[in-house]
Design goal:
This protein is an alpha+beta fold and 315 residues long. The chain has helices spanning 80-84, 121-137, 177-180, 193-203, 216-230, 241-244, 253-263, 273-281, and strands spanning 8-14, 17-25, 51-52, 57-58, 66-71, 74-78, 93-95, 98-101, 110-118, 139-147, 150-159, 162-168. With LigD forms a non-homologous end joining (NHEJ) DNA repair enzyme, which repairs dsDNA breaks with reduced fidelity. Binds linear dsDNA with 5'- and 3'- overhangs but not closed circular dsDNA nor ssDNA. Recruits and stimulates the ligase activity of LigD.
């Protein structure tokens, strides 16, 4: 078995049967092309910091809370401990509450796939029983799981010799296709157009083979990188962290003044009034915000939605 990083650990429950499991991502990012942003002039890596206020004061992680905006400019604040204390059974257990036909879920609702593995030898028997039962019944289990800071709707289904979990979008997250496509398809076609289109489709029909398709953009970028390497077009890029400690450019002008005053030698018999004044000047008024648009309430879920692949379409 290939060693992969565990993304989530918990239990899968079916009635009174509880099985220890772990999730690993079904998506690999090894072949993904990614770039770092670099300052063209200084050849330093561009980094992002968590800042607040007009002067861009950096805020340490322990001082960051989470705000839910109830109206423009007014928030209800939560700390990490308060959010962690929320009692959700789905934080540690996936309870399979119902089962649906394996192909009855509209692909529009599929979000992100994970592989499910039994967590330990003792869990393997129960894991395989559920896998084989789902295969035989041609069903997939529906439940919920709390991860990535929210509670996700999930579908659990057989995949090869194991089980796969697919996070699903909630009904309120999906736009109604009837609203998007209203007014289309009312015109009359010339005779024979549909037959000719069907003929073209039949001539090009085959079994889907994902390995036959390549990311041409990524391949072109890799070739471009090789060309630049062969031509000696490489530069040394620093992390840019020296600037954050004051050795390089200081972005906050008021902070720079404060540091300058603190480092300057005091005059004999002089008072330290300027230092206090500089420190006091770093206090800033809250940032004024423009009025945000009102949030629209999500649509309620419908029992009939998600059963047909033709009812919804993501815009």
């Amino acid at each position: 078995m290939v060693a992969v990083r565990t993304f989530w650990k918990g239990h899968m429950r079916l009635a009174l049967v509880t099985i220890p499991i772990r999730l690993v991502s079904a998506i690999s990012s090894e072949e993904k092309i990614s770039f770092h942003q670099v300052d063209r002039k200084t050849k330093q890596r561009i980094r992002y910091k968590k800042v607040a206020g007009e002067g861009g004061r950096e805020v340490p992680s322990q001082d960051i809370s989470y705000g839910y905006e109830v109206e423009p400019g007014n928030y209800v604040l939560f700390d990490n401990d308060e959010l962690d204390a929320l009692k959700l059974s789905s934080r540690h257990t996936i309870e399979l509450t119902e089962f649906v036909d394996a192909f009855s879920i509209n692909p529009l609702y599929f979000d992100r796939p994970y592989y499910i593995l039994p967590d330990g030898e003792v869990a393997e028997e129960g894991y395989c029983v559920i896998r084989d039962a789902l295969q035989s019944a041609k069903k997939c289990g529906i439940g919920q799981i709390a991860m990535r800071g929210k509670e996700n709707l999930i579908a659990l289904m057989p995949a090869g010799n194991g089980l796969m979990l697919e996070t699903l979008r909630y009904d309120s997250d999906v736009r109604d296709a009837d609203d998007i496509f209203s007014g289309l398809g009312t015109q009359k076609f010339r005779p024979g157009l549909i037959d000719m289109a069907k003929q073209l489709i039949e001539e090009r029909s085959t079994e889907f083979d994902p390995s036959a398709y390549k990311d041409h953009y990524a391949e072109t970028v890799r070739e471009f990188v090789k060309e630049k390497l062969a031509g000696g077009e490489t530069v040394a890029v620093s992390s840019g962290e020296e600037a954050a400690t004051g050795a390089g450019t200081v972005i906050d002008f008021m902070e720079a003044l404060k540091r300058s005053v603190e480092k300057a030698p005091a005059k004999k018999g002089g008072r330290s009034e300027p230092k206090r004044a500089a420190a006091a000047s770093t206090k800033r008024d809250p940032v004024k915000r423009s009025k945000a648009p009102e949030k629209s309430a999500g649509r309620g879920s419908s029992g009939s939605k998600g059963r047909s692949a033709t009812t919804k379409k993501k815009a």
